[in-house]
Amino acid sequence: xxxxxxxxxxxxxxxxxxxxxxxxxxxxxxxxxxxxxxxxxxxxxxxxxxxxxxxxxxxxxxxxxxxxxxxxxxxxxxxxxxxxxxxxxxxxxxxxxxxxxxxxxxxxxxxxxxxxxxxxxxxxxxxxxxxxxxxxxxxxxxxxxxxxxxxxxxxxxxxxxxxxxxxxxxxxxxxxxxxxxxxxxxxxxxxxxxxxxxxxxxxxxxxxxxxxxxxxxxxxxxxxxxxxxxxxxxxxxxxxxxx
Length: 243
Prior knowledge:
The chain is α+β, with helices and mostly antiparallel strands. It is 21% helix and 24% strand. The chain has a five-stranded mixed beta sheet. Belongs to the IspF family. This is 2-C-methyl-D-erythritol 2,4-cyclodiphosphate synthase.
């Protein structure tokens, strides 16, 4: 009888991976040398894991991971006086309520109307606005701080007093007016007949040529208190030039 011979192929038995043996000795890593230190006079940054402000001789990756604090030197302040600006810009704004029984004074000119500004002084919204613009350009407190309405000596005072003081401070700081642009906002009365008189008087109070003083007037399209003839407002932008 012929006997069938069967050849069986067997796969090799997989071997269990060996566990790598770790040495108890610390792993030696290449040292990373720090970059050239910054100039401490400008912006010095020091990395340290201790309270020392010195730069360590070298930081390895392991040591870098243990950094716990970043110390930044205080910027060096200059002892020089601040630079004098060749020009300064200021903005002023004022608003007053209109009530019967008060005169309406704008730019030092008495304007005929059935109501005027209720205020501690004469309520000249334009001059108050110009004063704030000058003080703002000089970096000084506003008109309410220099001439507080809690002081009885300013009760009913003409606003020309405030203008003259602001101009004095301007000259004392070494500046003069480059140009001024003011906008009055009121529904009534129409200011067209009075604009030139207002501009001329304002120029005289400022000691400026009328050509550098501009005045505009706008209604408020019957919107809110300005448009309902219950208030009056003014904006002023002024440029001061170094003498």
